[in-house]
Each structure stands twice: as structure tokens, then as C-alpha cells.
Amino acid sequence: LHKRKTRLKVDGKPSRMDMLTNENKDQTEKIRVEGTDKNDKLEDVFSYSGLLKKGEEITSNHANIKLLSTMGIDSCGRIGNHFTYIKNNMSLLRQKVERARQILTTLQFSISKSGAGHIPLSIPQTNSETASLTTSIKICIKPVSLGGTVLFVKGNNSASYGVALADGDITVTAYDIENDDIGSVTMDKVSVTDQWCTLEIKRTGETLTVTAVPQTGNTQTVRKMVTNLQLLQPLPLMAYVGGVPQNLGINDGSWEGCVGELIVNGRELTLFSPSSENNGTTLCTDHCISERHKLSMVFNGNGFARFIRPDRESISLITLKFQTHQKMASLLSVINNRNRFYLTVTMANGALKIESSSPNENIVLLSLNSSLNDGESHFLRIVYKGSKTYPELDGNGETFSVERAVPQILREILDGVLVGAFVSTSREFLTTSYRPFIGCISDISINDKRLSLPDAADIHNTFHGDCKDSSRNIWESCWQWTDRSKPLSLGVVENSNRISFLISRDALGPVIHFAKEEKFDLEVTMTSAGIEVSSGDSEGVIVRPEKDNTYFTLITITDDGKNALVQAWDQSVTFSYGGIWGFVRSDMTTPHSVVLGEPRDGVDRMFTGYISQFTIEDRFYDLSRYSSTYNLSHCERPLERILPLTVTDVKESFTCV
């Protein structure tokens, strides 16, 4: 390039390079002059005050940053952890408040009701409630006023019952679904002021029986048949003490006085709660004089209660009291995975079986008594001393034998204390060997610390109740006929014009043989399609409805003096024995022979299935007393799904913005 440039200069002509360079210089100068002119124009409108504000803002931010750097601000993660900690503490506090409220409600205080209005009380409900042939109500009162409604028990789309006072006379009234009066029972001059009186109301089918036990005076019992009462009634929904809500249209006035006890269908109702004082309720100064039965946890083959225990707890003593008719059932499990401690207590063919495993001992113990399913109360005490297991049954320490077997450890079972059933970690009943419990369990303690139902972390289909009143419920009074069972003859029964009972859906064969001398000889046989009824040469059929999905069916047999009537599913079959055109005097006094599980002709046809709540007229028959002689087994309730735990806390998440 240098040579080229030199050559061009020698020729006397400007080089191309020089021409380009000069052109660039002219353009640069032009741009510089134009830019200078523009900057001069911008300088005329520049805000020096704005520049000053920006400087002050920078200075302020610098000071704030310096201050923040000295304060040690938490990270977003640490703030989130603090938020979760506070939320959990609030949740725990709410649980403790609720637990305290539950414990308070289980303390059965006597209450004093004064003024107008009424006290609403909820009746404990469980899942899969089945309508029953019986209803029971027990209340203990000490009147201040001898007039007004003492109690009103509201049915669940079924009959309701009211107890009212009028000048000391007690009247128990049954109401239909529309709250219309359908019948009542009255006892004269039973109650007086300032004295306790216990009232027991029992319904069996269509018969009401009222018993009054005053503090002074004689016990009175009145029985009356109320023809329009439903035979099957579900558990009532509510109870109202001292009055009736206006919307029910029943006005017998308000009542004032003390109430010391209220039990409906074996469930004891909580009389006093933190909100009761708003209803004119205070605590009574004394208590009911009736003999109170100790409350138990009541199980119906579909429930359990779970208690959480400390991980580091060392077990030294376990006690419990139980009563049942089951031969095979789950009573108790105590599981501590941290300490490798496993204990299960079960009913095994009527005996009590204890399986215990720990780092120092593995043992299986079986009670020598194999008739512990007699429905009576039995007390178990297990002592752990020197890493050894020492059980006592009903105060006798020599009632167990050591079995040559290894304890069965249920690895998938929930830890803690389970009462009434074995439940897996996926919340399903474990029934490999033993069914959920049907009966009552009480006086449970671990290391002398009693476990009460409000302390349970998980409660499913279990309630506090009176075992005596619970004995008539469907599953407790249910008995199974198998191919090894024998026909059960009740002999010739007086006052037997009506028989009612519940029978299971899968029952097959001749269930009952009902005869009246030479007048009729009735046989009722269960089939897969329904019920076949025969008497002599006459036959009839009751067909099971297609949409019927109930497990139990009510069968009623009635003798009206001229006709024998069998009813089920709103259908009936009638056999007349009153002569032509019925010109024969009605016979309501001749007794009947009653046999369960035997065909009329004696042919080898067996009955299999469940029978529950067997009643003749208003008399409830406890079939448990025949179980051993006739090889009857206690019913096993079909398994049900365990409902998920109810979560009351709303889960809130913390987010850094």
C-alpha cells in the first residue's frame, strides 16, 4: 500500500486512500457539530432538581442496605419454618381445647334446668345403624315443678316419645312421624318435688312398658300396646330436656328440675357441656339415687378406638374388663415398634389368648377357661415383671397355660393401643384370624393410667354406653344356625299370638315351625327368592323385592284367633282356621308350640342363617342361653370399610413473594 501510495503521488494525482480519508474527516466533523448542537438544546431543559433527588435516593438506599446488613434477616426458608411451627402450635392448641371439651362432656354431672325453653342433646350415632325391634329410654329426675315436658326424644323419620308431668302424674306418649299422638301410658301420683325418680321406657314391637322407681314409695310398671307404632325403628336423632321446640307443634309447657342420667338405646347422653349454661342450665347439688351401671366402650363388630402412647414407654401393667358372646374376636393390641414390644389379646374358641413379644421374651398364653364368651363380665390383668409375663383372669393367676407356639406379630398393624379390632396401617380391618369385637370393654389401663374414649386419637363406630341396655341391640342378640346346629324347641308357649324376629339375607331352609293344637300347623321356609309358607295342604309365597338390599328382614307371625298371618316386605300370606265363613268364636287363649330350625314333616332339611331380636308378644328372648346345647354360634357382622379420618384443620401453605 505504501508503494502504491508513493507511486500515485509521483504521478501527481491524489490517491484513492487520501480521498477516502478526507471524506471520512468531513463526515466526522459534520456529526460532531450536529451532536454538539443537540446537546446544547438538551442542556437547556435538564432538571438539576431531579438529579439531586436521585442522589438523595441513592444515599437513602445505601443507608437502608447498611442497616439491613446489620440486622441478620432470616431467609425465606427459615420464615416458612417459623410459619409452619406457629400453625402447628395453633392446631395442637385447638386439639387440646377440643379434647378438654370432650373430657368435660364425659363427666356425667347432674344438671338443673330452670326457666322456659329446652336443652337440646345429640344422641351418639354410628355408621350403618340398623332399625331395631326395641327402643329403650332411661332418665332420672328430681322435679322442682310437677308440670311440663320433662323429655322429648325425636325419632329419625320414625316414632318420637315424650315424657310429661301433670300434678305428679307421669305420662309417656308415642308420636308418629307427623308428631301426632298415637298412644300414651299414664301412672298416677308417682313423682313429688325434691325427690329423685328413675323412669325406664322400653318399646318391644308395638308394646310400651313404663317403669317408675321413686326415691320413696313402691315401684310401678304399666304396659300398653300401641297398635300404630312402627315395629322397626332406627336410633332416635335428638333428645330435648325440659321442653319441646316450637316447630314440632307439641306444647306441654316447660319443666324445671334436676336430671341426673339419660340413656337412649344404651348410649349415655352428655347432660352438661360448655354451651349448656346459655340454656338456663346449671349443675345440680346432688345426684341421682338410681344404681348407675358403669360406662363401657360399646362395639358392634364394625368399630375400634386407637390410643397413642409415648415411644419410650416401658409397659409394666395392663388391665381391661370385657364381656362378649363371640368365640373368635379381637380385643386389644399394644404395639411399640421402637421398643420392639408387641402384645395382642384375642378370643380364641371361647378362651382368652395372649401373645406377647419383646427383646427378652416371646410367649403365647391360653386361658384354661374356654367359656369366657358367656356374656358375663371378666377382668384381665397382665403384669410384666423381670421381663416376664404374668397374667391374671378374674383375680386368679393360675388360669393360663403356656402354648408351644411362636407369637404371631402383625407387622402391618397400627402402632399404639387398639381396642375392639386390629386395623392395618392402610386403615383396613385385619381379619385373618379374628373378627372385630362385639360387646363391651371397660377399665382399660396402661401402667395404671386409664384410657377413656375421649383420649382416643381415632374413634370409629364406638360409643360410651351401658352394657345392660346394649344387650338387646341387633348384633349383640344375633345367633347363627349352621349345619351343626340342632332344632331349638321353646315348647308350648302361653301368650304367643304374635312372634317377630329379624333374619339374615342369606338364610335358607325351614326357620320356624308354629302350631296351635289341631287348628293349624305353620311352617316358614327361607329360599333364595323369598319366603315359602305352608299349613297343611295350603301354601303361599312372599317374594323378595328386586331392590331390597337390606341385610336383615323382619318376619312377623300373627294369630288373630281365626287366621294365621305371615308378613314380610309389606306382603302377607293368610291361612284361615276359623271354619266356614268364620262362624267360630275367636280363640286368643290357646298356646302355641314354637320350634326354630326344624321342618314340620321332620325331613332332613336344615336351616342355616342368622336370627336376631327374637320376641314373642312383648317378651324379648335371649337365645344365648341355648347356644351351647343347640350348637348356636354368635353372628359375625359383614365387614365394612373404615371411613377416613376427618381433618378439621385447613392446610395453609407459606409462600415467599
UniProtKB/TrEMBL annotation:
The keyword Chaperone is assigned to this record: no
Keywords assigned by UniProt, alphabetized: Disulfide bond
Occurrences of domain Laminin G (ranges): 110-288, 296-467
Domain of life according to the entry: Eukaryota
UniProt xrefs under SMART domains: LamG (SM00282)
Record-linked SUPFAM superfamilies: Concanavalin A-like lectins/glucanases
Signal peptide per UniProt: none
Cellular component, GO annotation: membrane
Pfam families xrefs: Laminin_G_2
Keyword Disulfide bond attributed: yes
Bridged cysteine pairs (disulfide): C440-C467
Protein name: Laminin G domain-containing protein
Organism in which the protein naturally occurs: Arion vulgaris
Taxonomic classification: Eukaryota, Metazoa, Spiralia, Lophotrochozoa, Mollusca
